[in-house]
Amino acid sequence: MTKAQTPFPAGMEITFIQEDLKPGGESLILGTHIIGEAGVSHWTPLAGSVSEAGFANGDAQATRFNNPKSFLQLDETRIIIADTGNYCLRLLTRASAITTTTFSGNCGTRDGTDGDSQTARFYYPWYLAVDIKSPDYLIVLDFDDGGDMTYFRKVDKNTGETTAYPSMYPSRPFRYFTQHRLTFDLYGTTTTTSAINLLSYDKLNAAATSQLLPDIVVGDSQAGFQDGDNNIALFSDPKQLSFIDDDTLLIADEGNNRLRMYEISTQTSSSICDGGSSGFPDAGLGDCNINKPVSFYMQHCGDGDLYVVTHSELYVIKGK
Question: What is the domain range of residue 153?
Answer without folding.
Answer: 53-130+139-165
